[in-house]
């Protein structure tokens, strides 16, 4: 009788911890400065070289290493 009771409590505890108890949520940052570091490298859409994110130009959602590459893509 006591084994059945322990088994029943064990099944209930398993179901609770597996399905019902909420897992801790990981916080996602929405700050624009936290998305990419200033030392990240991005690929130029025209010449395919990598340049620093802070030195790149953004146009139409694409990164360019210089004004010449940006103009030649248009």
**Main sheet record:** 2 strands, antiparallel
What portion of the residues fall into strands of 2 or more residues?
Answer: 15-25%
User: Helix-strand pattern, N to C?
Assistant: HHEEEEH
Radius of gyration: 27 Å
Q: Average the pLDDT over all residues and give the rounded result.
A: 83
Strand order of the largest sheet: 1-2
- Quantity of strands, as a count: 4
Broad shape: rod-shaped
Helix content: 25-40%
Low-confidence stretches: none
Tally the helices: 3
**First-to-last CA distance:** 80 Å
Structural class: alpha+beta
Describe the secondary-structure layout.
Layout: H1 2-20, H2 32-35, E1 41-43, E2 50-52, E3 57-59, E4 62-64, H3 67-72
Antiparallel strand pairs: 1-2, 3-4
What does this structure look like?
The chain is α+β, with helices and mostly antiparallel strands. It has a domain at 38-74. It is built from three helices and four strands, in the order ααββββα. It has helices at 2-20, 32-35, 67-72; strands at residues 41-43, 50-52, 57-59, 62-64. A two-stranded antiparallel sheet has the order 1-2. It has a two-stranded antiparallel ribbon with strand order 3-4.
């Amino acid at each position: 009788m006591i084994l059945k009771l322990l088994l029943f409590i064990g099944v209930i505890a398993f179901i609770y911890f597996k399905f019902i108890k909420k897992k801790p949520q990981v916080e996602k940052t929405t700050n624009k400065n936290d998305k990419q570091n200033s030392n990240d490298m991005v690929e130029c859409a025209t010449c395919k070289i990598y340049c620093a994110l802070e030195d790149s130009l953004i146009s139409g959602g694409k990164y360019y290493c210089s004004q010449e590459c940006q103009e030649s893509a248009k």
